[in-house]
Amino acid sequence: MRTDTPQTIYRKDYTAPSYLVDTVELGFDLDPARTIVANRMTMQRNPDSSRRDIELYGEDIELVTIRLNGKTLDEGAYAIEGSILRIPDAPDSVTLEIETICVPESNTTLSGLYVSNGNFYTQCEAEGFRRITYFPDRPDVMAKYMVMLRADKEKFPVLLSNGNLVEEGELPDGRHYAKWEDPFKKPSYLFALVAARLVCQEEQFPLADGRTALLQVWVEEGNLDKTDYAMQSLKHSIRWDEERWDLELDLDRFMIVAVGDFNMGAMENKGLNIFNTKFVLANPRVATDIDFQGIEAVVGHEYFHNWTGNRVTCRDWFQLSLKEGLTVFRDQEFSADMIGTDTGRAVTRIDQVRTLRQAQFPEDAGPMAHPVRPDSFVEINNFYTVTVYEKGAEVVRMYQTLLGREGFRKGMDLYFARHDGQAVTCDDFRMAMADANGRDLTQFERWYSQAGTPIVQAETRYDEAARTYELRLIQTCPATPGQPEKLPFHIPVAVGLLGKDGRDLPLVIDGQPKGSTAVLELTEADQTFVFSDVPEQPTPSILRDFSAPVILKHGYSDAELVHLFNHDSDPVNRWEAGQRLAMARLLKLASDIALKNPAADAPNASARTAVLEQMNLDEVFVQAMRAILVDESLDPAFREQALLLPTESMIADQMDVVDPLAIHMARQFVRADIGVRLRAELLAQYQANETPGEYSPDAASIGKRALKNLALSYLCAAPDAESLALAERQFDEATNMTDRAAALGALVHGRAPVAPDALQRFYDEFQSEALVVDKWFMMQATAPTTDVATVRELMKHPAFTLRNPNRARSLVAAFCTGNAVQFHAPDGSGYAFWAEQVIALDALNPQVASRLARAMDRWRRYSPALQEHMKKALQQVAGQGKLSNDVREVVSKALAN
Ligand code: B3K
Ligand code: ZN
């Protein structure tokens, strides 16, 4: 916690490290109250640097001794300023020995070395290693590590670190030791240790080159019945990386450790991945289909980092997307390949598009907007964002779209050939792609340097006589903080043309046949593409497979959208047509409701309800939904996606002044009207998509459950007694958590009389399963009936604590970000609650606090009266004397003009 003015760090100020580290020997005497860390490192002056001083970072640690080439340095020989320890005029070759003390048990930040449920864990990315020892803690300093762990044997029987176990044994006083050696050079952010009472599931797994590797999944006792899926996902990941990219596991041993207190999803420490329990523990009783999918994706993600992140890492933190965007792309491809079918792939793609629209587009349009490769930051932990991750993955995907799968693979191979063992930049990646394919990707660099979501406006013209079809694409990009003007992007726009019969017309451009989908390269602000030999007026399917992270605008008629919804051969655009149909209706309804009561934040619910009573969804839309719902030739998973309405926040994004209550009422109305009008079809699908027998998280079963439970939620949106009885029966009889939680959600959100009782029974049954208790809190936090007072009551529940990030997120953050109607209560009580919680959390854990702080990002989009309350809350946080850099950066950017 700092009180001084936070410093902004700029990408342009990068300088090479003055010293490079060859080897690091770390000795830990682990004690929760007082851990002694001995660090012996050999260093050389960096020939690429002109500086002669050694620069080390340290935070929240007590320096005991420091020796340089065997001689203790007295206080005049070095200087500590803030978190930098500087040794001026050091010799070219140096051995530094540093002893420090830290207090893991009082480290609530969960960065550095900390204690969770009595066990020791570390988290070093981005800058946690400096909370363990003084070190040139920056990713371009890569060294070989040798680690000695010493701890009480009874309390901490398991001692783990990166690489290979080289020695272990007993020590006096009931202590024991383990010595680990990592054969690979690595940056300090990949260091990890675990000292704990744990058990593991393990097996020997054959690798492609004939070696075998020992795989382990470590968990607390009592959770061994929940490790199978993580282990299976790990094996699939290893195999997939071998088969798709020829990338092998380079260690003899690979470990995953699950911990209940963790700031994010998981961490890719070399050979010793540390995971949030949420992304390891699963069995059908406690985990939903989405949890299973999350485990597969995150286990894959962390494993894939071994090459994209660890073997080739980032030169500096501005390059974070080099590893994160690329690794998200890899985990997305992995998840898609695991399903294997074309629609399965498309469904994963639709999910990705939803995430972008739900979270990344708003970020790109708000006060925290930043390029995929940011130019500056105050606190790097604030830049582990959907922009760096998900938009970064879209940027990587665009290379593949532009270069083709083979061309992209050539680029990857060249990237590894050039940079294995190095710390590099996003430009290095782009150059590998360009050079491997003989392509000029200069303009493509703007995807890394310019923030904001580009808008592509499409205009079309069919010339019947000439049989030509013109597609004019105009691109613009809104201003973002610090970037008033944007230059045109290099945008791959995949296009198909549908004939009247719904089939793809063959495409011809400049006399060249292009198949049924052409990837147009939009590089200018305004560019026209001409298709020839077009026999009839087509319906354009633009941005197929969501070929670029842009907003496509085109004046589609309802008839054209229905045509695309019924026939587009590209499932993503087929889904998209349905979203457009739904969005138009939701927006119209929301604005009608909002208009009935211009003082949107003093809602007159009955006037608004009166509007709804006169409303009726048009038959065109209902019929379009019906057609998809009953189309047995379509995968249930796809039908579920196609019937899912845009979320409240996506609707909000489209409104000039956001009216949360009007949006909620509009969306509820559409759901209820669908529930009534398609009742028979929904009931039939509910029955047709049951998954009796043993639970399996395969894609087909997951798709069925998703469609069945969507049908249930529409039916219960009405909500009539019969539908609620159906939900109640499902709740009572379900044999897996997916169906159990879906039924409970339908009861709670449908305000069923039995809901309170069902919630209580659910809690009683699962109170010893922390991850299920999180679900229990979250379900209540996001129910539109839950107001601030109820959340405050829930916070008094014995199972609630702000100290556990999962728990804090499941109640406090879920309410602030997932319950718009109540959070934006007209009296500002939601915002006051937010300010209070951000301040309380900041004292414990700045990273979690800062995430919560972002809930207020888009405050300027609400009515003046709400803005007034929001500004007050933001100012209250900003006015705190003691505030972390993390939270200060977020709130000051929100308040800046
Ligand atoms: N690399 C880590 C994220 C670290 C976040 C530090 N605040 C997990 C991942 O992306 O795989
Ligand atoms: Zn990652």
UniProtKB/TrEMBL annotation:
Keyword field: Aminopeptidase, Hydrolase, Metal-binding, Metalloprotease, Protease, Zinc
InterPro entries (UniProt xref): Aminopeptidase_N-like_N, Aminopeptidase_N-like_N_sf, PepN_Ig-like_sf, Peptidase_M1, Peptidase_M1_dom, Peptidase_M1_pepN, Peptidase_M1_pepN_C, Peptidase_M1_pepN_C_sf
EC number: 3.4.11.2
Gene assigned in the entry: pepN
Residue stretches making up the Peptidase M1 alanyl aminopeptidase C-terminal domain: 558-896
Family designation: Belongs to the peptidase M1 family.
Native source organism of the sequence: Massilia norwichensis
Name the UniProt record assigns to this protein: Aminopeptidase N
Lineage of origin: Bacteria, Pseudomonadati, Pseudomonadota, Betaproteobacteria, Burkholderiales
Top enzyme category: hydrolase
GO molecular function: alanyl aminopeptidase activity
